[in-house]
Design a protein that fits this description.
Blueprint (H helix, E strand, L loop, with lengths): L4 E6 L4 H17 L2 E7 L4 H5 L6 E4 L6 H14 L4 E4 L4 H9 L5 E4 L12 E3 L8 H5 L1 H6 L18 H4 L11 E5 L11 H15 L2 E4 L6 H11 L4 E2 L6 H9 L3 E5 L2 H8 L3 E5 L5 H4 L7 E3 L21 H4 L3 H8 L7
Parallel strand pairs: 1-2, 1-4, 2-3, 4-5, 5-6, 7-8, 7-10, 8-9, 10-11, 11-12
Helix pairs in contact: 1-11, 8-9, 8-14
Length: 340
C-alpha cells in the first residue's frame, strides 16, 4: 500500500470558492492517497470542517490583523512539514501562507496574480479563464497525473435540521414542495430586485402551495422580512437564525433554490439541490451552478456590457436583472424534466 502523503490546501475564501476547490481536493485525498489539511479564513472554517475529505483545518485571519495573522502562520509552520502545498487562491496573501508551510513542492493556480507566483515551485496548467472554476481547479489533478472525474464529487457532511425548522408554525397548512430562496449577495449589482423575489414567493405559495424558506445571514434579516411582507403569503424568514452549516442542512432538504449568483447557490449545487439562478453582471460559464439540472436566467436581450463584473451597475439601471419576470423564474423551478 502506498504511503500516505500530507497535503496542505490553501483556499482562504470565499464560500463559493471553497466549494469549487472541493472536488479536486477529494480526488487528491483518495488518489494519492493523502491526509489533507486546509488553511482558510475563520468565517469559512465551519464549512470546511464539514468537508469529509479534510482532516484538519487551520484558521488564518486576514492580514489586516497582523499580530493574529503572524501567529497563525507561525502555528502553521510548526505543524509542518507537508509533502505538498496546493494554493487554489493565487493571491499574494495565500501564497505567503503556502510559503510559510514547510513543503518542498508548492503548486499555485494558472491565474496566479499579485506576484504570488514567486512563492510557488510551479503553476497548475495554462491560464484559461473561459472555463468553470471547478474545471480550473482540476488543473492540479492533470499536473499530478491524476484522472479528472467525469462528475465532480462534493463530500459534505451537514447536520439534519431540527423538524421545527423544516416545518415552522408560519408554514402550517402548506404541503407543497420546500423551496429555498436566497435573495442576497455581496454585490448589489447581482441582486435581483426585492419586488421580483416578493412576487416569486407569492406565486410559489399561491399556485403551488410551496413551503418557502428564505435563507441568509444576520444582516439580511430585515431585508428578507420586507420581501416576505410584500409577498403577502406565509414564508419562513430564517436569515441569521442558523449557522452556515445548519443552513446547509436545511437547504439539503429542499427541492430547489431560487437565488442570485451567491454562496447559497454554490452550496445548493454541491448538495445536489436544483438551482434557478438569476445572473446579470457575472459569468455563469465561470461561476454558475455546476451541472445540467440547474437553470440560469438572463435578460433577453442582454445588456451590451454584460457580464461587466462590477459590484455596482455602471449604467445605474440594473436592467440586466430587473427585466427578468418572476413568473419566468417560478416556471423554471417547476420544469417537469428536472424537478422532483
Amino acid at each position: 500500500m502506498a504511503e500516505e502523503r500530507r497535503i496542505l490546501v490553501v483556499k482562504l475564501s470565499s464560500l463559493g470558492d471553497a466549494l469549487h476547490a472541493l472536488p479536486a481536493v477529494a480526488e487528491l485525498r483518495d488518489r494519492l492517497p493523502a491526509r489533507v489539511d486546509w488553511a482558510v479564513q475563520p468565517a469559512f472554517a465551519p464549512l470546511v470542517r464539514s468537508f469529509s475529505c479534510v482532516d484538519r483545518v487551520f484558521e488564518i485571519p486576514r492580514p489586516s490583523r497582523p499580530r493574529e495573522w503572524a501567529r497563525s502562520l507561525l502555528a502553521l509552520r510548526r505543524a509542518g512539514p507537508w509533502d505538498l502545498v496546493v494554493d487554489f487562491q493565487g493571491l499574494l496573501k495565500s501564497a505567503l501562507v503556502a510559503r510559510a508551510a514547510r513543503a518542498p513542492r508548492r503548486i499555485g493556480p494558472s491565474f496566479a496574480r499579485e506576484g504570488s507566483r514567486l512563492f510557488y515551485t510551479e503553476l497548475a496548467g495554462p491560464r484559461d479563464k473561459s472555463r468553470h472554476a471547478i474545471d480550473e481547479c482540476f488543473d492540479v489533478l492533470r499536473l499530478l497525473g491524476i484522472p479528472v472525474p467525469a462528475e465532480p464529487r462534493f463530500p459534505l457532511d451537514v447536520p439534519a435540521p431540527d423538524p421545527s425548522a423544516l416545518d415552522p408554525p408560519e408554514l402550517a397548512g402548506l404541503s407543497g414542495p420546500r423551496i429555498a430562496v436566497a435573495p442576497f449577495s455581496r454585490w448589489p449589482s447581482k441582486n435581483w430586485p426585492a419586488e421580483r423575489f416578493s412576487e416569486a414567493i407569492r406565486l410559489l405559495v399561491r399556485d403551488h402551495g410551496a413551503r418557502v424558506h428564505v435563507l441568509g445571514g444576520p444582516g439580511d434579516r430585515a431585508g428578507a422580512q420586507a420581501i416576505v411582507d410584500a409577498a403577502g403569503v406565509p414564508a419562513a424568514n430564517h436569515c441569521g437564525a442558523f449557522s452556515l452549516v445548519e443552513s446547509a442542512g436545511l437547504l439539503a432538504r429542499c427541492s430547489a433554490l431560487l437565488t442570485n449568483d451567491s454562496g447559497p447557490m454554490h452550496l445548493a449545487a454541491a448538495l445536489g439541490v436544483r438551482c434557478v439562478a438569476v445572473f446579470g453582471p457575472t459569468s455563469a460559464d465561470r461561476t454558475g451552478p455546476y451541472g445540467p439540472r440547474h437553470a440560469v436566467l438572463r435578460a433577453a436581450p442582454e445588456c451590451p456590457r454584460a457580464p461587466c463584473r462590477r459590484r455596482v451597475c455602471p449604467l445605474g439601471t440594473g436592467a440586466c436583472l430587473s427585466s427578468i419576470p418572476a413568473a419566468r423564474a417560478v416556471a423554471a423551478l417547476f420544469d417537469a424534466q428536472v424537478f422532483h
